[in-house]
Amino acid sequence: MTYAYKLMDSPVGQLKLVANGEHLAAILWENDKPNRVRLGDLSEENGRPVLVETERQLKEYFAGTRQAFDLALDFQGTEFQKKVWHALLTIPFGQTRSYAEIARQIGNVNAVRAVGAANGRNPISIVAPCHRVIGASGELTGFAGGLANKMLLLSLEAGQTSLEAAASTQTHAQTPTQARPVATKTDAKPARHAPSHGTQASLFGN
To answer: How does DSSP classify residue 191?
Structure first.
């Protein structure tokens, strides 16, 4: 199977958008580990409609004008991984969940570590928002795109920074970890809240 890909410059580094037919199969980070997401042969196709549409929606997201994505997705993984990845899609913009909460959501409360491992192998970054999953005490845990980018995405969703503005000042020589500081307290942590409450608290508190 040959996958089509398109490269996209973004405030969080160069992203590789990957399609399987007319479905989005992956969004890979600039410095992604080669084996984190297993795909077949890749062929560059900048005009593939689903990739063009993905880039358009991502630009709107980074500009702060889009909170949800409307794309046909193709998750390739185990049944357990797919349950976790689909659970990520249910986390609302501006909210976070813990690994334990995701484990409860998929009906396996003892699978917290396995949830963490599946989260780390999420192939469709940003669109399937694995950046919204944090540690039980609110700490920002490991992230394939780097913790600086995780902070940037969470800050964007909390309305505390503009990645569009960051993009205009960021040079191509910068790596994702060299992104400019966000307008938030450096010692603040995302607020914890249970999904059943249905509230949308600030990710960094006020």
So the answer is: P
Choose, from 130, 151, 154, 182, the residue flagged as catalytic. 130
Burial class (CB in 10 A: 0-12, 13-18, 19+), 38: exposed
Stated pTM of the model: 0.78
Instruction: At 78, list the tokens.
Output: 């185990």
Strand partners, 18: 5, 26
Per the CB < 8 A criterion, the answer to whether 27 and 54 are in contact is yes
pLDDT in tens, 75-99: 999 999 999 999 999 999 999 999 9
Three-state secondary-structure class, residue 8: strand
Label residue 178 by pLDDT band (50, 70, 90): very low
CB atoms within 10 A of CB 36: 14
168 or 206, greater pLDDT:
168
**Does 57 have pLDDT greater than 90?**
yes
Please name the residue that has the structure tokens 């409360």: 109
Known catalytic residue: 2? no
Q: What is the pLDDT of residue 28?
A: 97
Question: Where are the extended beta strands (E) located within 111-150?
Answer: 133-134
Q: Which domains does the chain have, with CATH numbers?
A: 2-62 (3.30.160.70)
Is the Cβ–Cβ distance between 22 and 35 less than 8 Å? Answer: no
Structure confidence by residue, pLDDT tens digits, 111-151 = 999 999 999 999 999 999 999 999 877 778 878 899 999 99
